[in-house]
Amino acid sequence: HAVDTVVGIDRINFTVPNHYLDLTDLAESRGVDPNKYLIGIGQSKMAVPALDQDIVAMAANAAEPMLSDDDKERIGLLVVATESGVDQSKAASLFVGDLLGLPGHHRSIEIKEACYGATAGLQLACDYVARHPQRTALVIASDIARYGLSTPGEVTQGAGAVAMLVTRDPAILAIEPESVYESRSTGDFWRPNYSAQAFARGKYSEEVYVGMFQELWAGAQELGMARPDELQALLFHIPFSKMGRKGLRTLGDGVIGETDYARLTDRFESSIIYGRQVGNVYTGSVYLALLSLLDNDEGLTEGDRIGLFSYGSGSVAELYFGILQPGYRGRLDAAAHRTMLQARERLSVPEYEAMFSAQLPTDGSELVLDRSDQSDSAPHYLAGIKGHERQYR
Ligand code: HMG
């Protein structure tokens, strides 16, 4: 098997729930200056999932539009990365493969390491395709970020899924085999099994994020991997856009040349357009930033090199690189993505609070979800729970 096989992202798509909360409405209701959310946090809207859009349904909805029957035949590995899993034992990917109608001849797993999970999945997928060049791998990041009403994290919630097809000779982004990464046990953010909401040491989590970025950046410099003049864009995990901006700012003040810093800052703005309207999608956040950059930046061209900083609390971080491939623009559907974001329904704060508080039963009781109250435009959805098993359509 060829170690020098070029592998990477051949297709990428995302889905968001079709309800959102405008953060100026949230600010007013919480008695906060809207600029704290719009500028201080750097977010404008937040996706709010209906109960029928759990991570399995969203994952299937993100992947479905980009797969033909032939594509489904070639998939040899399906990874769903999530920290909002629906079962302690069965992988979410098995439900997703079933909804997508994938033939059985593939490996199917769920991966967890906070927001880093999809990068772990993507690297695994690249290794798999390098060893099995005739097969492809489908990696889906799907999450619901919940912190609780009136908590400091409330404004950084969100939900959505990003699907990526990894192949040899990819049409969008070739991923370089060399990267820098680090794992270190920290208590910056976690969600115990008994809790539907995450806990965070907010300011400390920001410190760990920035610290790990700086270490990996320095490591990449030592290895000659990240010459600033060779990077056309640098993408960040975006729990909220200010966080990525703080990471990028560590390269200001002469750390890298002014021209390079200006170019990376300019590209950063294109990378947060979608995330600002969606919120944190945990595992998918850095990939939503990639899609936002590719859909919205007119200046990028084939052959351009992009850095991606992936961070997952707890904590694992990786800085890796990819090269834009010839004709990549033709493989994107920016119009569909913009239409999806614009077509969403705006919730009032009481409607959002009611949706947030409506949770699936935790005592094993059966449930039938009435689609008319839920997310009626999404093709795949959770229809209910019967005999302790989730029922999907
Ligand atoms: P807070 O209490 O709202 O923080 O919590 P704050 O009061 O310091 O305000 C935030 C910013 O708004 C500050 O700017 C203020 O100055 C500014 P900064 O100092 O940060 O640059 N501000 C204003 N700006 C303009 N006009 C105004 C105004 N007022 C204030 N009027 C915090 C913020 C992020 C800590 C909280 O939302 C939180 O705990 N979020 C959840 C944790 C989180 O997202 N951490 C990020 C790093 S960890 C990570 O990325 C991993 C993660 O995705 C999970 C995973 O891996 O699975 C979270």
From TrEMBL:
GO biological process: acetyl-CoA metabolic process
Family matches, as InterPro entries: HMG_CoA_synt_C_dom, HMG_CoA_synth_N, HMG_CoA_synthase_prok, Thiolase-like
Enzyme category, top tier: transferase
Catalytic residues, chain numbering: E83, C115, H237
GO molecular function: hydroxymethylglutaryl-CoA synthase activity
Record-linked Gene3D superfamilies: 3.40.47.10
Its EC number(s): 2.3.3.10
Hydroxymethylglutaryl-coenzyme A synthase C-terminal domain location: 265-322
Binding site for (3S)-3-hydroxy-3-methylglutaryl-CoA: D33, Y147, K246, N280
CDD domains, per database record: init_cond_enzymes
Keywords, comma-separated and alphabetical: Acyltransferase, Transferase
Domain Hydroxymethylglutaryl-coenzyme A synthase N-terminal residues, every copy: 7-168
UniProt superkingdom: Bacteria
Family assignment from sequence similarity: Belongs to the thiolase-like superfamily. HMG-CoA synthase family.
Protein name: Hydroxymethylglutaryl-CoA synthase
Organism: Bifidobacterium bohemicum DSM 22767
The organism's taxonomic lineage, starting at the top: Bacteria, Bacillati, Actinomycetota, Actinomycetes, Bifidobacteriales
